[in-house]
Each structure stands twice: as C-alpha cells, then as structure tokens.
Amino acid sequence: MDLAVLGIGGSLFGCVLIALFGAPVAGAWPFILASSAIHLVYWMALTKGYAAGDMSHVYTIARGIAPALVTLGAVLFAAEVPGWGQGLGIAAISLGVMLVGVNRHAPLPATGWALLTGTAIAGYSLVDAMGVRVNADVFSYKGWGAVFTFLPISLFVIARRGPASFAAAAAGRWRQGMLAGAVSSAGFMLVLWAQMRAPIGPITALRETSVLFGAALAALLLKEKVTMRRWAGALVVCAGAMLIGFSR
User: Fold this and answer.
1) 98-153 pLDDT tens trace
2) How many angstroms separate the CA atoms of 22 and 194, rounded?
3) 216 domain-assigned
4) Is residue 92 part of a domain?
5) What is the SS3 string spanning the chain?
6) Could you tell me which residues come within 8 angstroms of residue 97 by beta carbon, excluding any fewer than 6 positions away?
7) Which residues, 6+ apart, have CB-to-CB distance to 235 below 8 Å?
8) What is the pLDDT at residue 24?
9) Which of 116, 123, 142, 143 could form a disulfide with 38 if both were Cys (CB 3.0 to 4.6 A apart)?
10) Domain assignment of residue 218, yes or no
11) For position 15, what pLDDT does the model report?
12) What local confidence, expressed as pLDDT, does residue 41 receive?
C-alpha cells in the first residue's frame, strides 16, 4: 500500500516534467520501456527482501553489489574503463557498503532477494544512463520514465485491493508517501544528470554512499544495532568516495 502511494507521488512528479519538457526522442523509448520492466523486478524484490530481513542487511547488499555490476556493464556496453584510482574507489565503496550492513545470520531468503535487488539496480542504472545520453535531455526522459516506472505499480495495487480498500488503507499516509515518491524521482533524476556528464560506474558508486544514511536511519528509527564493523564500513565508503572524487 505504501509503495502504491509512493508510486502516485512519483507519477505526478513525472507528469509535471512532461508538461514542462514534452516527450523524449524516438530513440530513447526502448530504454524507458526496458527500465520500467527492470524497475518492476526491483520493487518486487526489494519489498520481498524487506519482509524477509532487516532493512540494513537487504539495502546494503543490494547497494553494495550494484557499483561493480554497473562498472562491468559500462565497460562492455559503453566502452568506459575506469582509471586505477576510480576502480579502487568503486571497490572500496562496495566493500564498505557490505561492512555497514551485511549480517551473516540473516535469513537466506532475505539475502537472495537482496542480491536480485542489486542486480536489478545495476540493470536499470545502466539502461537509464545510456538512454538519457541518447535523449540528451534528462527532464523529458525522466518525466516519462517516472510515469512508466511508478504508475504500473500503483494501478496493480489499486486493482488488486479495490479503490475503496486502497483509499482506506492509505488514509493518513498520503502526504508522506507522495512526498517520498517525488523525492525518489527527483533524486534519480540528479543521478541521470550526472551520468550524462561523467562515467557511469563511478557515479553509480557515489550514489551508493546513500547506504550510510540508510544505516543511520535504520539505527535511529528502527532501533537496529550499529556495531564497530558498521562504523569501519562507513569510513571505507568515505575513503572510496574520496578516491573517485580526486582521481582521473
């Protein structure tokens, strides 16, 4: 239900961009549609993972494997080979992310869903980075991308639960959910804007420093324990981000 409300917020954000910036070029549509399909796998795997295990474990595994997979994809499909400094930075962020949240005692299904989530993140990150470059405009690309990404999820939930049941269950949570959807779309739009101007792999790795905020929120709001290992992982992530930022 929460994801469906979030989807409405993301879709409305996309509609605003469509009204302001119009349609993407014809060559961008295959990328938008492919990204939408991969996002459906992502949302399904993410929600299943959160249901099976701790947020900090699932979120960090998903975010930890994504940079390495995206970097490999960028080498294969975009001919972008990172320098040694950036390569070390990407590896450090992946390692640090794992240290922050991986729990060896976590249920196996949670880890499996997290791995699928990370693979989906890598897939849509690479597809969207290539698509926005074809379109050469992040706003029209993200506008339609947001609608095709979020609206199917919301419509599916509403159809499954019924409009009345959905409205009753979502009552009191509209504002937070719709704001989260808009912020989610705006945040990924910034990533795409950066990937139009810089290599895909390092930008994706820098994006995954968000796991530090995720771990902090898990500790503060969900009362999950922050160990010394997680603090060490945070320092490794920061070191990796600095390597990427200062390497050529």
Assistant:
1) 776 677 777 888 889 999 999 999 999 999 999 999 999 999 999 999 999 899 98
2) 21
3) no
4) no
5) CHHHHHHHHHHHHHHHHHHHHCCCCHHHHHHHHHHHHHHHHHHHHHHHHHHHCCHHHHHHHHHHHHHHHHHHHHHHHCCCCCCHHHHHHHHHHHHHHHHHHCCCCCCHHHHHHHHHHHHHHHHHHHHHHHHHHHHCCHHHHHHHHHHHHHHHHHHHHHHHHCHHHHHHHHCCCHHHHHHHHHHHHHHHHHHHHHHCCCCHHHHHHHHCCHHHHHHHHHHHHCCCCCCHHHHHHHHHHHHHHHHHHHCC
6) 60, 63, 64, 208, 211, 233, 237
7) 96
8) 95
9) 123
10) no
11) 95
12) 93
Burial of 93 (0-12, 13-18, 19+ CB in 10 A): buried
- CA nearest to 89, candidates 198, 199, 236: 236
The answer to whether 86 and 202 have CB atoms below 8 angstroms apart is yes
- Residue 120 falls inside a structural domain: yes
Cβ contacts of 236 within 8 Å, gap of 6 or more: 92, 93, 95, 96, 99
At 12 the pLDDT is 93
* pTM for the full predicted model: 0.81
Largest Cα–Cα separation, the chain: 56
Let me know: does 178 contact 13? Beta carbons within 8 Å: no
Q: What pLDDT, on a 0 to 100 scale, did the predictor assign at position 239? A: 79
pLDDT bucket at 232, cuts 50 / 70 / 90 = confident
Token couple for 163: 């409009």
What residues make up the domain containing 64? 2-82+107-198
Cα–Cα nearest to 82, from 221, 201, 220:
201
